[in-house]
Amino acid sequence: MKLKLKTSAAIAVALFTINTVSIAQQMPAKTADLPKNWHTLDLQKDGYFGVSLNQAYDFLKGKKSKTVVVATIDSGADTLQKDLQPVLWTNTQEKAGNGKDDDRNGYTDDMHGWNFLGGPNGKADVNETTEEVREYYRLKDKYANITTASAAADKSEYAYWLKVKSIRDSTVNKSQTELNQLSPLMNALVTTDAYLKKTLNLKAGQSFTKNDLNKVEDTNDTLKQSKYIW
Question: How many domains does the chain contain in total?
Fold first, then answer.
């Protein structure tokens, strides 16, 4: 009985969240919808700030291709991704997995470059952050308790701190709002997942499909609403 009440409560909150999001999505857009392929279009021909993909193909017709090495400087790359594996640059001066800096460039086992945030066995040494977050914590201890520019020894840096703080706080508030909106739905998914697996006689590690749910008769409102969420 307790599980059923808990499930029903989670479902009620989730349905309210889903309906609220659905209504927001149905509201008229303030601007015209972009074409789905806008990022491939051309500014002069199509009026969108795309990469001019078709024009690039036309430009390359009849030209001899040559190998280009591209460095990923921002975020990391999955070296196990099947489409990337055949084209990944490989450091021929390094021997994989021997724990030694064979080419003596300062980085051990850098077979495909180097992840400066990474460590042994895929463990991250530090948390990846944006520039405003790094700057926020660099200046926080110095300026967090100062409320007026006149109290700051370096007024220019204090003004910079206020700008950084504003950007960081805005990002945090936006993320917190999104988390508050999604948490009820996530809780409902966890609760109804357990409820539906019990109904389908599945173990915790097993999964169900839409066809599995379609075969289940709606014997009560809790079951019906649980299926609706999924």
Answer: 2
